[in-house]
UniProtKB/TrEMBL annotation:
It comes from Spiroplasma turonicum. Residues 326-474 form the Asn/Gln amidotransferase domain. Its EC number is 6.3.5.-. It comes from the Bacteria. The gene is gatB. This is Aspartyl/glutamyl-tRNA(Asn/Gln) amidotransferase subunit B. It catalyses: L-glutamyl-tRNA(Gln) + L-glutamine + ATP + H2O = L-glutaminyl-tRNA(Gln) + L-glutamate + ADP + phosphate + H(+); L-aspartyl-tRNA(Asn) + L-glutamine + ATP + H2O = L-asparaginyl-tRNA(Asn) + L-glutamate + ADP + phosphate + 2 H(+). One of its GO terms (biological process) is glutaminyl-tRNAGln biosynthesis via transamidation. Heterotrimer of A, B and C subunits.
Length: 478
């Protein structure tokens, strides 16, 4: 690719995390029975009038602020007119002329270098229905119709597939920690369209743009871009024309395939939405939304590494999962030492989440459970080995730590007299070892005695008290 400069722009459609749709009170949900979550407004019945979801506007403002955008304090909507089976009204309510946010950016870091990626606009609109193609037929599920979206349009300043992935990953992280969207690419709540063209180095104009629709994973984004760069460069070098068209990425073929050609620009006949008058947004209301904006991952990353002294990879491990991050911070709020929580998450909890293929809020374990376990360990009631056995049971059964301990008889023996009664026979059995080796290999002898004591009690003995008694009683023998 020494001949051409690659020009990439990205459009992300992001479903807003609201309980109801953007212009109706139909519920927003995923995986429900087809066509069960719609009403007359979503389906465009005559006389059905839309109203604007206030929460949806708040979420759009949060996104605009995080992406350093100029926020329009007058909310205006337009109609995008086109006839398609996934659009029952025959038009889509959007913000063509007056997007809620303009001229923002985010920064990506790649190979140690920071690059600012300009963002042209954010606008609010409604989603379309979902089409399922099967056995030569098309089935339509209108449940998604009317779900609130923000469309985030980058400027054409990305140059490689690596930059594109870094941009999409960073954008996804920002929106996730703002709680604007659950940004699940596999469920379609975070969709990605890539616009890509090539031009000779030094040329200021743009080549014909190809749009790749609905990429649903970071891996597919990279593969689609790299394939399209190769395809377009081969066409140009063989004196053929790169046509302006819409393509999709075929996973089975690992290549982009034609959907439709774009010989002429489509005239959507945009005009102002007559059923929603312009709404003046109070500046104090906008400022209050911004003031209460959730903490972004970058701020958390800085705090975890500087205040908690976590390694960067440990920090990113926590921040890779929004709900795990919330769980971690709820534990911090309960006064649990950060390193302890980190160790439980990395070694025990994450393995259970992967095994059950769920996120932590879907499990039974809670920050209070972790606090109980830590307190029971601090009091010498259980050992760290017990804790590792207790966590999986709580995770799956909703039992409390003390309940699990009592059911399994996992309390440590901490009574000195009881420990002595178990220890003295062991010392007598190992008297010769003590007499011969204690003066020269004290630590090894003590560990040997402790190992026998642990084996005899099945590990259910307080190690601190036991070691003190071992030292004390050996001195009497020696």
């Amino acid at each position: 690719m020494t001949n051409f400069e690659v020009i990439i722009g990205i459009e992300n459609h992001v479903e807003l995390k609201t309980n109801s749709k953007i212009f109706s009170n139909s519920p927003v949900s995923y995986g429900e029975s087809p066509n069960s979550q719609v009403n007359e407004i979503d389906l465009g019945y005559p006389g059905a009038l839309p109203s604007v979801n206030k929460k949806g506007v708040e979420l759009a403002i949060l996104a605009c602020n995080a992406l350093k955008m100029k926020i329009d304090n007058i909310l205006r909507f337009d109609r995008k007119s086109y006839f398609y089976s996934d659009l029952p009204k025959g038009f889509q309510i959007t913000q063509q002329f007056h997007p809620i946010g303009r001229e923002g950016y985010l920064e990506i870091e790649l190979n140690g270098a920071v690059k600012k990626i300009g963002i042209e606009r954010i606008h609010i609109e409604e989603d379309t229905a979902k089409q399922i193609h099967k056995d030569g037929k098309t089935f339509i599920d209108y449940n998604r119709c009317g779900v609130g979206l923000i469309e985030i349009v980058s400027k054409p300043v990305l140059r490689t597939s690596e930059e594109a992935i870094s941009y999409v990953s960073k954008l996804r992280e920002i929106l996730l920690f703002l709680n604007v969207s659950d940004v699940k690419m596999n469920e379609g709540s975070f969709r990605c369209d890539i616009n890509i063209s090539l031009r000779p180095y030094g040329f200021d104009g743009f080549g014909n743009k190809v749009e790749i629709k609905n990429l649903n994973s970071l891996n597919n984004i990279k593969k689609a871009i790299d394939y399209e760069i190769k395809r377009q460069s081969e066409l140009i070098l063989s004196n053929q024309v790169v046509e302006q068209e819409t393509r999709r990425f075929d996973e089975s073929k690992q290549e982009t395939v034609l959907m439709r050609k774009k010989n002429d620009a489509i005239d959507y006949k945009y005009f102002r939405e007559p059923n929603i008058f312009p709404i003046k947004l109070d500046n104090n209301w906008i400022e209050s939304i911004i003031k209460n904006s959730p903490e972004l991952a970058d701020k958390k990353r800085e705090r975890y590494t500087s205040v908690y002294n976590f390694k960067l990879e440990e920090t990113n491990f926590i921040l890779s999962d929004y709900y795990l991050t919330k769980f971690f911070e709820d534990c911090i709020d309960l006064g649990i030492e950060p390193k302890k929580i980190l160790n439980y998450i990395i070694t025990d909890i994450k393995a259970l989440l992967n095994k059950n293929n769920i996120t932590i809020e879907k499990s039974y374990i809670s920050p209070l459970d972790i606090k109980d376990i830590c307190e029971l360990m601090d009091k010498g009631i259980i050992s760290s080995k017990h804790a590792k056995s207790i966590i999986p049971i709580i995770f799956e059964s909703n039992k409390k730590a003390i309940e699990v301990i009592e059911e399994n008889n996992w309390k440590l023996i901490s009574d000195e007299n009881e420990i002595k009664s178990l220890l003295l026979p062991i010392l007598q059995e190992n008297k010769s070892l003590i007499m011969e080796s204690y003066s020269t290999r004290r630590e090894r002898v003590e560990k040997t005695i402790m190992g026998v004591l642990m084996k005899k009690t099945g590990g259910n003995i307080n190690p601190k008290i036991s070691m003190e008694l071992i030292t004390q009683e050996i001195k009497k023998i020696n």
